[in-house]
Amino acid sequence: METLNTNERTYKIEFIPFEDKVGLNEDGIYDNIYRGFNIEIRFCEEIFYARIYKESQDEISFGSNPYPVFGEDLENVKKYFQEKHGIQRFKYYDQDRDEASYVKF
Predict the structure, then answer these.
(1) 37 φ, ψ to 5°?
(2) What domain of life does the native source organism fall in (predicted)?
(3) What is the rounded radius of gyration, in angstroms, for the C-alpha atoms of the chain?
(4) I need a surface site. Which of 31, 48, 76, 78 has the fewest CB within 10 A?
(5) With 0-12 CB in 10 A as exposed, 13-18 as middle and 19+ as buried, what is 59?
(6) Across 7-105, where does the E strand assignment appear?
(7) Among 25-29, 54-58, 73-77, 81-85, whose mean pLDDT is lowest?
(8) How many alpha carbons lie under 13 Å from residue 78 in its C-beta half-sphere?
(9) Helix (H, G, I), strand (E, B) or coil at 26
(10) What does each C-alpha distance from 57 to 7, 23, 24, 52, 74 come to in angstroms?
(11) Which H/E stretch holds residue 79?
């Protein structure tokens, strides 16, 4: 587990490996296998979720809008992931959008 301290807040960050198998065909072989890390970012009792795929390790996808959760800490959280994990692209899932459901920020 990693720790990020910023603006008198402490975030605990845990990387949990995952493997999603999709499209089992008649031969018993999966058409696609996605690997990467599910990320849990904890502050007090709150947990915020994100994911990094092995195929696009420079991109992180948050499960929902990060602005309300991190507030003024958002830029420090982004900087942490850029410097420590090489993340260059950030996006979050927006269930209220009609077009593409992921928003870059």
Answers:
(1) -130, 130
(2) Bacteria
(3) 15
(4) 31
(5) middle
(6) 9-24, 30-43, 46-53, 59-62, 89-93, 102-104
(7) 25-29
(8) 15
(9) coil
(10) 27, 23, 25, 6, 20
(11) helix 74-85
Q: Of 84, 79, 53, 48, which Cα lies nearest the Cα of 66? A: 48
Residue labelled with tokens 């959008």: 97
Place of tokens 């809008």: 65
73: DSSP letter: G
Q: Indicate the pTM of the whole model.
A: 0.86
Q: Determine the Cα–Cα distance for residues 58 and 40; give it in Å rounded to an integer.
A: 18
Cβ–Cβ under 8 Å, residues 16 and 50:
no
